[in-house]
Amino acid sequence: MGNREAIGLQCIKLVFNHVKLLLCTNLHKGISIGLGPDGELRYPSYRHPATTNHIHGVGEFQCYDRNMLSHLKQHADPFGNPLGGLSGPHDAPSYDQAPNSNNFVKEHGGSWETPYGDFFLSRYSNQLISHGDRLLSLASSIFNNVPVKVSGKVPLVHSWYKNPVPPF
């Protein structure tokens, strides 16, 4: 876990503890944790224009900060593809592209079906799942003796609806 994420989790813990006090004094039955201000667990992430509710594209993989690149590199070397840890997929969609407008998520024969695609998607999705697990585990540990149900909200990427290539 990177230092930035540790600081973020400490801030979230403070907020959860404050909410716990409020829940103890009221008749709430559950707490729903949004997993990211604009969907840290949205997969792939996309920009949501403030002026419209229309989603313009499928989004991009959020894998270009030094922590994620380091994680990819660490796992790419034993996989036998040291170049695979230098960036995300070179042929993945950009923010404003339709799901089938590039080679990575092409319906038939897209590079998401290659060994590298499988490697990348496995590592990327496992990182997202681990992040969500850490947040929900933290919430569960704080609210464990409060009679509320803890749940997480995972955003939906509407551009992928009915697309034969899954949003991984």
Can you describe what's shown?
The protein is mostly helical and 168 residues long. It has one domain (3-160). It has helices at residues 3-25, 66-79, 115-142, and strands at residues 30-34, 149-153. The chain has a two-stranded parallel sheet with strand order 1-2. 15% of the residues are buried.
Strand order, sheet with most strands: 1-2
Per DSSP, the total helix count is 3
Please report the distance between the alpha carbons of the first and last residues: 23 Å
Secondary-structure element sequence?
HEHHE
The low-confidence parts are none
What Rg is obtained from the alpha carbons, in whole angstroms?
A: 18 Å
The backbone outline, from C-alpha atoms, is elongated
| Category by helix and strand content | mainly alpha
- Helix share bin: 25-40%
Major sheet, described briefly? 2 strands, parallel
Please give a quick description of this structure.
The chain is mainly α and 168 residues long.
Structural descriptors:
168 residues; mainly alpha; two-stranded parallel sheet; Glyco_hydro_14
Helix/strand layout:
Blueprint: H1 3-25, E1 30-34, H2 66-79, H3 115-142, E2 149-153
Parallel strand pairs: 1-2
InterPro entries: GH, Glyco_hydro_14
Protein name: Beta-amylase
Keywords: Carbohydrate metabolism, Glycosidase, Hydrolase, Polysaccharide degradation
